[in-house]
Amino acid sequence: MKSFGTAIGATLLVACMGQAASATTQNVIFNGTISPTCTLVIATNGTMTVSPDLQSLSSHNSGGSAGTVTLTTTGGVSLSVDPVTTTTVPSADTTSTTWTPTYSAAGAHSIVETGSATAITTPGADLVSVNLAGTKSGSNRFSNGNYQATVTLRCE
Amino acid sequence: MTHVRTLATAMAVALMPIAAGAQSMSPMRGEINSFTDVFAVRVFPANPYDQKIRVEIHVYDQDFQPVDARISPSVFQLGSQASRSVLVVVPFGGAVERKVRICTESIPFPNQQTQIKAQICGKFFGHRKS
Predict the structure, then answer these.
(1) How buried is residue A82: exposed, middle or buried, by Cβ count under 10 Å (0-12/13-18/19+)?
(2) CA distance B72 to chain A (A)
């Protein structure tokens, strides 16, 4: 009787062997949505110097320097500069000046110097260089004194 | 009018994102349905600098013309790495829908020869529901 019981038990054990224990699993789903974002951090303002013929006041001239801005974005944004509207000129300067803001970028995106809007479709960080050039035509010249201009760099 | 403001604020609260640090403004996109003659957006300008900056909030239309929106607050000082909420209430002006840009502007380093103004603009689309 004892051996019969043992045989039955062994049979049942063999019958159950090879059957994996049924584990219960549930998926936990995480969703995340990132809308287009953009961060501009101004590192340095620019400096303009005057050309030898006194008809150009520009960050491109010798001794001048571009302003630098760090751009970090998810992509899906547009970068642009506005026409310069805010300037301060010395009282001795009574002639008109044409101001041309431009920018370029290096890093995750490569943007050749431009004054037009650039669509940025991919994520990444860039160092944006912002330049400003003021020019006078004809017999007009820049005068001594302090000049100041504001360039608006927009990310939207 | 109070009822309108309450509704508008309620809708703005519904649009509230989780404010993140080191971000100039969030959200930068939004579509809002409103049952009143205004729609409201709550945005979160942030200061990524290690210094306090002066921040201005402006609202423009698609052609970058100023929009007569109610902005609370429109000009403020923002501490280093800080963020705060700004409520913008935009009138439809008789239209059934209106696209506006809400822009965060700052000149973190003023009084220099060539200043750079950083402008982060979000695009928002309001729909007037009847």
Answers:
(1) middle
(2) 21
pLDDT tens-digit profile of B2-46?
454 444 444 443 344 433 333 479 999 999 999 999 999 999 999
Instruction: Mark yes or no for CB contact A45/B114 under 8 Å.
Output: yes
Q: What is the CATH number of the domain that holds B92?
A: 2.60.40.10
Amino acid at A108: A
The pLDDT value recorded for residue B9 is: 43
Interchain CB distance below 8 Å, A149 and B114: yes
ipTM of model: 0.79
Q: Closest-CA residue in chain A for B122?
A: A156
Ordered by start, the domain boundaries in chain A are 35-155
Reported in sequence order, the residue ranges of B51-113 that DSSP labels E, i.e. its strands, are 53-60, 70-72, 75-78, 86-91, 97-106
Task: Indicate the pLDDT class of residue A86, thresholds 50, 70 and 90.
Answer: confident
The 10s digit of each residue's pLDDT in B58-89 is 999 999 999 999 999 999 999 999 999 999 99
Give the domain A35-155 fold. Immunoglobulin-like (2.60.40)
Torsion of CA B99, B97, B83, A148, to 10 degrees: 30
Query: How many separate domains does chain B show?
Result: 1
